[in-house]
Amino acid sequence: MTNPMAQSWLDAAEDLGIRVVHPFRFTTASAVAAETVGVFLPDFGSEDGMLLTCRFDPDEMSELVDDTPYRTSGLSPRYYEPYSRTRFIQTLSDWGWFGPEGQRPHWYDPDWRNRSG
Prior knowledge:
The chain is an alpha+beta fold. It has helices at about 5-15, 60-65, 75-80, 85-95, 110-115, and strands at about 25, 35, 40, 50, 70.
């Protein structure tokens, strides 16, 4: 069963045409294998991707994530569950596109803040 946070991102993947990996297995720099029930966004946040853990992960997950090259962000369930197209587009645009240039989504707008009055 998928948790509400992951489901929001899976809905975003379907609607926005982005890659979302759930669950996500990773290995820390200290060679510890871990799995989050959050999501991994390989094309956003940094060249290494964006790893989003969630409240359904064990407490030690944040320490494990700190030992990785991934960019991370804490997202409030209040604003990111359920999926909201506008909010997710704004968030992803803020984080930045790092995927292949020819595959950048048509909706991606890194300057959206300058356009919203």
